[in-house]
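Case study: Stage V sporulation protein AC.
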Amino acid sequence: MDVKQQKLNKEYQIYVQRKMPKSNLLRDCILAFLVGGIICTIGQAVNNLGKSYFNLKTEEASAFTAIVMIFIGALLTGLGVYDDIGKYGGAGSVVPITGFANSIVSPAMEFKKEGYVFGVGSKLFSIAGPVLVYGISASVLVGLIYFFLK
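Here is what the predicted structure looks like once written out:
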């Protein structure tokens, strides 16, 4: 790289630093903690409801909770509310299972105009797909290691 190009790169980096919005890390961490905690508290309430009101066993109540929370995340994404929660709560909205529902529904909604096959069908797992692939691969690898070490 020549001297002129290096100077341009440095000037560009300075420009980017000036234009980049400043974030308050402590505030962002607290909001992420609170939003994630609220979502998890709602999940625990759904679990308790399943156990007490519907008389579900622990395993059944856990499945019930996952289904309800995924539905809530998908519904809020469809209504445009989950994006606002994500803007406010940052990573706190991504960690719970509702963030998974959001990552599946968002691209599907974005590409709906391209049709159900080439739009929704092909883009449905564009964000969650790599997470699923690597998550399943890692669990298989850990399972094999556990199997051979045991």
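For the exam, be able to explain this: Residues 24-149 form one domain.
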